[in-house]
Amino acid sequence: MITMKDIVREGHPALTKVSQEVDIPLSHEDKALLEEMIQFLKNSQNEEVAAKYNLRAGVGIAAPQLGINKKLMAIHFEDENGKLYSYGLANPKIVSHSVGKAYLAGGEGCLSVDRQVEGYVPRHARITLKATDMDNNPVNLRLKGYPSIVFQHEVDHLNGIMFYDHINKDDPFEVPDNARPIE
Ligand SMILES: Cc1nc(NNC(=O)[C@H](CC2CCCC2)CN(O)CO)c(F)c(N2CCN3CCOC[C@@H]3C2)n1
Ligand code: NI
């Protein structure tokens, strides 16, 4: 099972590399990795398991965080309406996005960053994302709000971008015009 010791931390070169696309259909190895990544997220959201294995809670994880520079990412969370987002995705691509921006009012963190980094992380408010899922089916997702932010955080990892790269250095809490806070 994946635990925190498997997650590389900032300074590790895998986190700032652009990862490679994977072959479709997925190899058994890549599919198994996506399954393990989803299981990690479920474990991290389960109080008993997270306490037992000392897991930090996560709603998404990307393969570079495991030192693997492949375009593989996993997402597992329920939105405020209880809609479940649970995906193991290969070769995700943001094919279109809104002009408008959005940001998490509480800022962002990262399982690969062992420190608090203050500030708003401006992202696209709405995205259309294309990818291939674990069963080799094409996925076409239109996302807004909290889900849109989570998916963008993970896609960034596949391009070697960390959340703090988006924070305004001079004024971390500067709100870009036409940006909307997500509580
Ligand atoms: C927002 C949030 N970020 C948590 N952690 N950080 C992460 O997931 C990083 C990715 C997120 C950081 C900002 C956007 C994406 C991991 N990353 O670095 C991957 O690249 C959470 F854990 C969390 N939730 C809310 C839902 N809750 C359900 C019940 O279980 C606890 C869980 C806690 N919300
Ligand atoms: Ni992260």
UniProtKB/TrEMBL annotation:
Belongs to the polypeptide deformylase family. The active site is at E154. Its EC number is 3.5.1.88. It catalyses: N-terminal N-formyl-L-methionyl-[peptide] + H2O = N-terminal L-methionyl-[peptide] + formate. Binds 1 Fe(2+) ion. This is Peptide deformylase. Fe cation binds at C110, H153, H157. Removes the formyl group from the N-terminal Met of newly synthesized proteins. Requires at least a dipeptide for an efficient rate of reaction. N-terminal L-methionine is a prerequisite for activity but the enzyme has broad specificity at other positions. Keywords: Hydrolase, Iron, Metal-binding, Protein biosynthesis. One of its GO terms (molecular function) is peptide deformylase activity.
